Amino acid sequence: GAVVSQHPSRVICKSGTSVKIECRSLDFQATTMFWYRQFPKQSLMLMATSNEGSKATYEQGVEKDKFLINHASLTLSTLTVTSAHPEDSSFYICSARGGGSYQAFFGQGTRLTVV
Amino acid sequence: ELKVEQNPLFLSMQEGKNYTIYCNYSTTSDRLYWYRQDPGKSLESLFVLLSNGAVKQEGRLMASLDTKARLSTLHITAAVHDLSATYFCAVDSNFGNEKLTFGTGTRLTIIP
What we know:
B: six-stranded mixed sheet; 0% helix
């Protein structure tokens, strides 16, 4: 199956700093990428949808200025958590769709800890 | 707004037993997905169900879709410990925006 690579898998950062998470589709062109957040023992919560070359569409309640999403190419989307605070600590997962498949392919996830 | 509910939320069962996880959704959709998640890991795709009446089986897991009832089931046959995980169903919206809406998840624990 198609591969989506997410990096880094774990990151610890200081409060007030910014963190960038990358999501790459390795063997297909992802027309749409999605960013999810998952709190412990809960389901995935969609944060935003991004299409290559256009602005991301954020879900209600997600701060655009805090979670910057860039989808610069058909194989790369990035999520930048700006001025991170401890409450931003979570598991972030990206997903990509495209390549003529109905499937959504998921990255490995990034465990963010803000101290 | 599309809502997806799973039940049960928690399931503890003995090895060798059979059980079914249910996934109900609120609006019309023709595509439903089942995923497995192990602790600390991302999602692993199990099944893609693309039409009414679709049934797919892989090992001890079998998934089915009834679009008229807006219901999918994930049936576990003769459970083994390796199946312990959290299982999510997810539904495609029919609005062409490719968003998946996830169910609440079912945490399955298989007891030896």
